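Minutes, project check-in
Item: structure for the 256-residue chain
Input as provided by the requester:
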Amino acid sequence: MEKNYELIADDDGILVEKFDSTIVDENKYNHNNIIYKVGNSFKYKFEHITTQGEIKFFKVINDDSGWVFVDFNNTDSTTVRSVEIKVLNGNPMSEYIPGYSQTALTYKSGNNKGYSMSGAIENEGNVWIHPPRDKYFEILELNPFPYIKAPYDIGTKWTWRLDIGDSWADGRWKLWNGSIENKYQYEITGKQTLKMALGEVECFVIESDAKSRIGETKLTAYFNPKFGFVKLNYTNIDGSKTNLVLKEFSENENGR
């Protein structure tokens, strides 16, 4: 496919596609994707590990308006133990954010009917994705986002930043007032082959941390050029951990 865009850095340094104003194709940010093709879906299993080493999941309550932690040994059919990310057709986020320049994603937790939308950026310069952010997964907003930058070589380093408002605060992990600025540092530190439900998957290992006035978080991400971020090991703001592992990948052969 002929390249019809140039890469430019946004205000925070992520490389995004810039198109001529005459190109109005609603899928223009999706055509060059290898991982996040329209219709592809990624299902992750997850676990929360407390600072005491206890494994937890969560359950939606109050008619889908709230949630509570669930012990590992006290789960049932209503317990959320997975999250699915699916790539949408077109650019539906532009209805809410004019000029939206990302591939649109939906996020759905377990069997819940509700879902949210956000996005991914994928091109030859970098791959960046917003993590799940509904209910319990709001905790991940304070961590480094999954992000890899070319060249995909051991030793490649880069930085990023993001302002985060107190709407993401929760007494179950951290309360604060006003906005904080997270400053991130990333480095590709190695390569590793993981034995997964998908088979043996060769990955780049990206170590990252985020620091702000309220504390520090970390993420070790495992990235594969076909499946994307297949494993995410977070250290949260309160010292707890969140682990996500890709267990199912569905590819839409007709994705545009």
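Outcome recorded: The chain is about 0% helix and 50% strand.
No further action items on this chain.
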